[in-house]
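Q: Please design a sequence for this.
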């Protein structure tokens, strides 16, 4: 009787062991799956944090470069606010990375102090004092460190994408040397305040605004077209027979429009006034045979054909055989940057491939050009002594609050022949904006 019992025991034992092995295998597989999922989540989180950190540092670098040449309290205050916002964003991104905070003390110190330092300069100038040479050198030191840190972060992103990033090694990369930061004057408090709903401009040649959120005075004062009338207008713009266009639909935002199309082009005409809102073409771009000067002629003729007059080209880019030129409206001696039109021309045959007229349509209006209360000479005296003015003209630029301001536009150079545009109010003499001019083989841009 004992023998069968022993056999049953062995069977139960083997069954139990098999169950344990199976359970352990399932547990191991589940653990591996969880580990792989965690690794993917860590990588995705790291990629996102590095991308956001890279963007913040790039913006800080640009604002510091502008801040070096700011010379009035309002502009320095604007730069400080921008730097605070970007520094706070950078610290948030940095905190997400799997790095030891104790290794990054000087990096966090830099991010905390940079906005405070520029704000202290703003208060000093507001009190009637001048920025000293030592303080400007400190600004250059901050800029140097920002450039170094930005380069390191960009390198880390490349390593991460290529699968070579070691976050432990990255701690050594980001652990900044105190000497790199430079000696900062005064005791700076750590600023953790994040600015919400911060108004910003989209700089594009150099100015446009959040146009789709605005009300257009031009459209509000114009008569409304029927779909049939808009159809005829669209055909006229494209130089086609009306039958070659089909009705696609409507756009019902603040720049309400009828949309028509051909096999390779889409054109939108505003319901009020029949203005060209945009043109998009999918035409093939062949080998480039034309130059910028040729493209400018084709673009100017197209704008005149569409009824846009008194437009002046400003900045342009060339990419993949397409030249995109920014135009702004001119009136009473002022170049009105809010009234922006962008035209893209094929360098193969001069065909206009696209046109974006939203800036003009949404911003164009009757303006009052108040006589300058500050002379050009007095305004120029507020340009940074580190810059040399090479040219001056009057300009209308948008403000952060959605308004506009009349300015002197000073085209300047520093000792390294880098070029800047400094905008000083014709009414207050304060700086309103500073832009960097970027020259490359593919065109002229600003940031």
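A: Design:
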């Amino acid at each position: 009787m004992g023998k069968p019992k022993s056999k049953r025991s062995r069977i139960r034992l083997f069954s139990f062991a098999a169950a344990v092995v199976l359970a352990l295998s399932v547990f191991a597989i589940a653990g591996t799956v969880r580990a792989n999922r965690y690794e993917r989540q860590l990588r995705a989180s790291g990629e996102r944090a590095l991308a956001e950190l890279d963007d913040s540092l790039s913006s800080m670098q640009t604002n510091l470069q502008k801040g070096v040449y700011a010379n009035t309290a309002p502009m320095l205050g604007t730069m400080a606010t921008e730097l605070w916002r970007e520094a706070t964003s950078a610290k948030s991104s940095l905190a997400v990375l799997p790095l030891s905070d104790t290794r990054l003390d000087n990096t966090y110190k830099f991010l905390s102090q940079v906005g405070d330092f520029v704000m202290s300069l703003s208060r000093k100038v507001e009190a009637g004092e001048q920025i000293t040479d030592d303080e400007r050198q400190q600004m250059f030191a901050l800029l140097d460190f920002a450039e170094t840190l930005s380069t390191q972060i960009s390198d880390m992103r490349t390593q991460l994408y290529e699968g070579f990033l070691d976050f432990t090694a990255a701690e050594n990369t980001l652990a900044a040397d105190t000497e790199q930061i430079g000696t900062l004057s005064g005791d700076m408090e750590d600023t953790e305040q994040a600015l919400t709903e911060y108004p910003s401009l989209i700089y594009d040649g150099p100015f446009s605004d959040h146009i789709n959120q605005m009300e257009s005075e031009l459209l509000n004062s114009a008569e409304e077209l029927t779909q049939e009338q808009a159809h005829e207008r669209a055909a006229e713009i494209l130089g086609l027979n009306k039958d070659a266009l089909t009705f696609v639909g409507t756009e019902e935002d603040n720049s309400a429009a009828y949309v028509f199309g051909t096999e390779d082009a889409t054109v939108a005409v505003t319901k009020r006034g029949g203005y060209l809102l945009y043109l998009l073409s999918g035409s093939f771009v062949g080998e480039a045979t034309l130059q910028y000067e040729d493209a400018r002629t084709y673009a100017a003729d197209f704008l005149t054909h569409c009824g846009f007059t008194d437009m002046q080209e400003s900045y342009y880019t060339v990419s993949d055989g397409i030249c995109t030129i920014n135009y702004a409206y001119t009136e009473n001696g002022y170049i009105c940057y809010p009234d922006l039109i962008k035209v893209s021309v094929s360098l193969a045959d001069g065909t206009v491939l696209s046109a974006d007229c939203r800036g003009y349509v949404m911003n164009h209006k009757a303006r009052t050009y108040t006589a300058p209360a500050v002379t050009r000479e007095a305004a120029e005296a507020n340009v940074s002594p580190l810059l040399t003015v090479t040219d001056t003209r009057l300009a209308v630029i948008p403000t952060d609050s959605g308004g506009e301001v009349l300015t002197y536009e000073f085209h300047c150079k520093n000792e390294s022949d880098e070029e800047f545009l400094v905008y000083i109010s014709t009414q207050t003499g304060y700086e309103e904006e500073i832009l960097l001019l970027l020259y490359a083989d593919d065109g002229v841009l600003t940031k």
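Q: Thanks. Anything notable?
A: Residues 168-172, 175-210 have pLDDT under 50 and may be disordered. Residues 2-68 form the longest helix (67 residues).
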